[in-house]
Amino acid sequence: MAVFDTPREAFGALRPACVRLTRAQTAENVWRLAARLAAVSGPALQELQEYVLFPLRFALRAPGPRRERLVQSAVRCIASVLAATAVRRPELLRELLSELCACLGPGPGPGPGAPAPPAEDVKLAVTEALHTLLHSASGDVVLSLYQPSTLPLLGFAVSLLLGLAEQERAKQLKVSALKCLQVLVLQCDCPEHQPLGDDEAQQCGDLFASFLPGISISLSRVVTGDIKQGHKPTVSAIRLFYLVVGLVMADAQLARVPKSKEKLPEKQSRISELMVHRGPDWSKSTAEKLSLLLHKMVEFSSVHPHWKVRLELVELVHHLLRNCSHSLGDSFTHLLKALVGLVNDESSEVQSRCNEVLRGIAEQRIIAQSRALADVLSENLHSLATALPRLMSSQDDTGKVSTLSLLLGYLKLLGPKINVVLNSASHLHRLSKALMQVLELDVTDVKIVEDRRWGCEGALQPGVQKGRCQKKYFRFFTEEKVFQLLQQVCRVLGYYGNLYLLVDHFMGLYSESATYRKQAAMVLNELIAGAAGVGVDVLQEREVSPNVDDLKGSVTSILDEYTDQANWYLITSIDTEEVSHEQRAVHHTGLPARAGGVCSTVLLPSPEPHATTRTMNSNIWQMCIQLEGVGCFAAVLGKEFRLLLLTALYPVLEKAGDKTLLVSETALGTLADMCEACGYGSVQLLINDNSDYLVNGISLGLRQLAQQPRASRVLDTMLRHSDASLLPLVEDVIQDVLSTLDQCYNSQASTFLRVLHSVMAALVQWFGSSYSEEQQQQSTEYQSRTSSQGPRAVTAQGMERFFLDYVRQKQMAEGDVSDTGDEEADEVPHLGKPEPNNCDTEGEAPLPSHAQLAKDVLERCIHLLSDRSLRVRLKVLDVLELCVMVLHPHGNHLLPMAHRAWPALVTRLIGDDPLAVLRAFKVLCTLAQKCGDFLRQRFSRDVLPKLTSSLLSQAPASARAGPVYNHTLAFKLQLAVLQGLGSLCEKLDMGESDLNKVADACLIYLSAKQPRKLQEAAQSVFLHLMAVDPDRTWLLLTETCCPHGYEPPHVSLRPVKLGGMGRQRHELTDNVLLLLERLRQRESAAQESPP
Amino acid sequence: MALPPPDPQFVLRGTSAAVHTLHFSCGGQEPDVPILFSGSENGFIHVWNLKTHRVDTALDGHGRKSVYCVETMGDKTRLLSQGRDQRICLWDLAEGRTAVTDSVFTENVGFCRCSLLTVAQGRWLMAMAAKALEEVQVLELPSKTSVCTLKPEAGAKLGMPMCLKLWQLSSGSQPLLLAGYEDGSVVLWNLSMGKPLSQLACHQEPVMSLDFDSEKTKGISGSSEKVLSIWSLNEQQNLQVYKTHNLVNAGISDITIRPDKKIVATAGWDHRIRIFGWKKLKPLAVLDYHTATVHCVSFSNHKNPRERLLAAGSKDHRISIWSIYTQT
To answer: PANTHER family, alphabetically (chain B) (predicted)?
Structure first.
């Protein structure tokens, strides 16, 4: 919009205004001039700069009392001129500076009365003008200002501006003054300024040294001033402070300061007195004073509510550390503390900047190079470590976070120098004691002890779930952040520190006392993680990372310690089964603990009879921490861990089967970690691939009485996760189990039965397919047979055939066999032949190993069937059933065994606890599927009478009973018998009289008075009976109740009279009708489908 | 009170046949893993890695006939094995090879283990039962040239040689052979003359195994009876019974003196390994783990005494590894 481009035109335009202003110094005239100025272009104005400035300066110097408005407008106008032009004459700069400064001071002397200080507006305008002035001066011109000769003028300006910054209340003015001051000390941060050369900087440094006391004190007052002044002045003051201090105290400059003061020319001697010589003495004393100020400032601003202030503090530390790390050595105690403390500032900007700065410091190896700083840091660390326990128990969580982040920061900053600290015994001692104290766990929670793992079916999920740490509860803090910090502290220690030293030290603590054990283990775990560089956040790379062998060495020694009997087998529950076994084992053997051996006499921590909840909780946590450690080691070593599986897998698997929920969960997590580390896709694969190691552990474990339950548990777990390919190994170890069992039927039977159960279950699973197939085949066969046998529709021909058959059979029965003799003779050898053949071939072939195993187990089961304890008997029955399933395809081995087992089984069936009867009945059903013929007679002789009589005797009771009856054992027994009896009859292909017995016994259960379930079960019995002999069943049912009459097809036949005809509806009616209907459906279905 | 006997440190499974012979090779430098060779009834020689406790390789060179002797020649890359196929095979196992480089046809139907003695770098003497029933033949390896044939005098009625031990008083001196015979006597042979130096009837039954300590010039032999016999060799090179030790159960299938000559281990038909002090034959321990006859015992030659092991192979297909150095 410049209208006047040439100086001539501009002059024409400006002249009147200038003249007018010169004549009458009024604000209006100034404005007029300013308005004109706006239309003049920059280059043109440059020519006329001094011309235009003259009236304005004149106006400022106008005699008489100062007129605020005039001064303000004049100053503004000057500023606008200066903004558009450049000051090219040093004298002009100097004059303008002093004139403007004069405006800031109280009015010149001559005015009457007390010279009032200028108004704020004026001051603001003046500071801004000063700012503009210093910017408009070009480089050389500005530098000319910084000569010893101008020192007084500069000093004047500086003190005025400081005064403004310190005393004024207006925020804007303060900021403006500080900004102006910043420019004045040549530290402006706007881009136009070129950085000072070394010599120039040195020169300026010399000059500003004179102002340093004033500047620093005033600024520190501003910084620590009223918080209400807002953050901007504080920020600017901090910045100015570090810029000035950084310039004057710069190491680089101080190093170049000559020993003695330079002699200045004579005429400047007065001025030279003002000059400061920055010699060693001076710098030392100044540093001391600055240290005080810095301390105060840091204290104040590190907790300043506004983040920008804290950010600026970070910058301050950064700047000073970079420039004055020597000269201000002593101050760094506070500075670093502040810096490190701010790492965890709540503002992310501060945090990230702080991290950046720290990283920068570390990368430049400022600490590493300067012994002084390392000393300062280790000193800080030591005092912090000393105070740590106290702080940890007294501070709240926020306090702890800040204390710990401070600790962490020190460690990170020290970096590789940590070892210097660690090598000092007292440092290490304090640090570790502090960690031990802080990490103390809260072991009062009863729930941890109470939480049990029930059942063992879902022990290991097939998929890999990442092992994660269990949430721990600490005595002295609750916040997760605190724990994370502690974790980082340990990891950083491990990362930089001498691993051997640290592991050794903490292992010492681990074994030193039980109170430290958990904490030490926790620290050890983290140390290893840190040493491997897992999850460590550090500022600088370490020089040498430990090689895998070192790491493995440490891990191996820790692992050995962890899985040592004394540390691995802790009492975690008062589970009667486990503890009593273990304790009993100890009593039984009375083995003295063998010191030092390679393996395993049990070194149970002397069985405390009254393990308190607290100790058990503590033990559980120790277990968890150790397990987590194993997982962590695996993660650290990766594939290298495979070698350690030899020692580690077995103990972990042992714990995976632990009854305490927390322990088993953690162990599962560890297993998952191991899988991942060693490159196995699933826990199953892991177990499968290393089952030789496990088998070894199991086999050795079985040799120790006290270890047997655990070994069997591992075997159990192993079996559930392996497949048939492992049979040779499994076989091997099962032989061990059996021989061990043979040695101690009394004490350990239940333990081993569990194993045998899982072995047999596994065998059924691996080899059982043939069994189930066969079963299916059988049933289909059976169905086809029955359906083909089923009587046809009652046609005349059918009836005729029936009667012919009947007559012939009757003749045969009466001994009249003349006709049919041939036929029979044919049939008998035909039937007889294949059987012995069959037997021979099967008998000759060696039994497959799994079947042999089943046979061996079955053998033991026979012995144990009459064990005193009911639990054992029940378990045995279960195992027996599985054995039968496995042996199923090998009839000629099964039958002799069944024969041997029979007497004991019968005793279970007829004279035992109802629970045992129930199971025994199940076994019987399974057995019946294979050895039908074999069992038929025995069953009808030994068992059936007892069963039917008990059914009959119980019937009235169940008919009377209320709904609670459904939960009684008697009910369950009835139900089981009724449910099983039908199929049993069918499988055993029982004779007529037995079927009658069964039917009679079951009929009363069709009563509507019986519980619903029993009725249904009884129905099922009849449905099975229908399958065996539909006609008889029909007759029996119709005897009870017959819904419709039957017309004889021919008049020559007598009318049919059935017992149930014409009876009233009674309790059995409903069920019988239902069954008859089902029977009718069956018959018609059989009719429709041709055989 | 005596400490209870320890458990095996580890049990190696997977030979799937009775184990007849064991031989350690642990002398290698650090990166080398210690190795145990086992020869089993199904003709396989298994190479066990003692770090992972797993089979590294299985060598098949005896036509599925029982292997009853395995020895290394020098380092673990050269192996000698003897099997019931009447062959003695020399193996080259360097760089993972599994090749039979040479073999000797013994024509002997017995199960007398051969005995190997290093006479110089790359030169060995090997004594083995020869084709003729009572004879022992000594060969030089690897050239396979016959050094001598030791034939008892007519009418001596020694029976078949059952066990052999080549030894020399000090390296470079004259090698001698101790042989145990079917009739229970032990004979010391001079190889250069091919004459027996001394004969001692130690047992009533065939000598099943013997070992000899050339430092103390004292030997031990076991047979199928309940007696261990310790005999010594005096300056006149006469064998004398020094002591006998009665056992609870009859039958010793293998005897080994530990390389440091402090203890002796025996493999018993009673499924047990027995450890004795060598000096006075004081019984130290009975190691009970196996469930069938123990066929062989062997001590490892690991450089670090703490890592030295004892291995025993048994008919129950297992090899038990024991660490008994820490105790004695």
So the answer is: GUANINE NUCLEOTIDE-BINDING PROTEIN SUBUNIT BETA-LIKE PROTEIN 1 (PTHR19854:SF1), TRANSDUCIN BETA-LIKE 3 (PTHR19854)
Q: How confident is the model at residue A597 (pLDDT cuts 50, 70, 90)?
A: very low
For residue B126, which of B136, B140, B112, B113 has the smallest C-alpha distance? B140
Name the residue of chain B whose CA is nearest to A702's CA: B7
Domain boundaries, chain A: 932-1047+1055-1090
How near does any CA of chain A get to the CA of B49, in Å? 11
Can you name the residues that pair with B164 across neighbouring β-strands? B179
Cα A5 from Cα A43, distance rounded (Å): 8
Q: What is the CA radius of gyration of chain B?
A: 19
Label residues A962-972 b or e (16+ Cβ within 10 Å = b).
eeebeeeeebb
Q: Does the pLDDT of residue B20 top 90, yes or no? A: yes
pLDDT above 70 for A734:
yes
Instruction: Please tell me the distance from the alpha carbon of residue B23 to that of residue B71, in angstroms, as a whole number.
Output: 6
| pLDDT classification of A64: cutoffs 50, 70, 90 | low
The pLDDT assigned to A506 comes to 92
Facing residue for B13 by CB, picked from A599, A703, A732: A732
* Distance from the A598 Cα atom to the nearest Cα atom in chain B, whole angstroms: 6
| B271 conformational bin, left if phi > 0, alpha if psi -120 to 50, beta if neither | left
For A1049-1067, give the secondary structure using H, E and C.
CCCCCCCCCCCCECCCCCC
The pTM score is 0.72
Maximal C-alpha separation, chain A: 167
Report the residue of chain B nearest A697, measured CA to CA.
B10
Q: What is the nearest CA distance from A591 to chain B, expressed in angstroms?
A: 8
For residue B212, give both structure tokens. Answer: 């000899």
Nearest C-alpha neighbor of B25 from the set B308, B323, B290: B308
SS3 letters for B6-26? Answer: CCCCEEECCCCCCEEEEEEEC
pLDDT tens-digit series, residues B196-246: 889 999 899 999 999 999 888 899 999 999 999 999 988 888 888 888 999
Check B53 against A700: CB less than 8 A apart: no
Distance CA B59, CA A795 (A): 78
Block residue for tokens 């881009």: A191
The three state secondary structure string of A63-88 is: CCCCCHHHHHHHHHHHHHHHHHCCEC
Q: Is the pLDDT of residue B135 over 50?
A: yes
Which chain A residues have a beta carbon less than 8 Å from that of B327?
A: 597
Shortest Cα distance from B48 to chain A (angstroms)?
13
Report the interhelical angle of A992-1003 vs A1030-1040 (nearest 10°): 40
Query: Higher-confidence residue: A910 or A64?
Result: A910
With an 8 Å Cβ cutoff, are A732 and B1 in contact?
no
Q: What one-letter code names the amino acid at A885?
A: M
pLDDT, averaged across chain B: 88
Question: Is residue A401 a contact partner of residue A416, using CB atoms and an 8 Å limit?
Answer: no
Of A594, A598, A643, the CB nearest to B4: A594
Select from B52, B317, B323 the Cβ nearest to the Cβ of A598: B323
Task: Write out the two tokens for A467.
Answer: 């092992």
Better-scored residue on pLDDT, A668 or A796: A668
Model confidence pLDDT, tens digit, residues A376-389? 778 888 888 888 87
Domain covering B19-105, topology? Thrombin, subunit H (2.40.10)
3-state secondary structure of A516: helix
- Percent of chain B past pLDDT 90, that is, above it, reads 38
CA A388 from centre of chain: 27
Does B14 sit within 8 Å of A692, measured CB to CB? yes
How do residues B242-294 score in pLDDT, each as one tens digit? 889 998 888 999 999 998 888 999 999 999 999 999 988 899 889 988 989 99
Averaged pLDDT score across all residues of chain A: 77
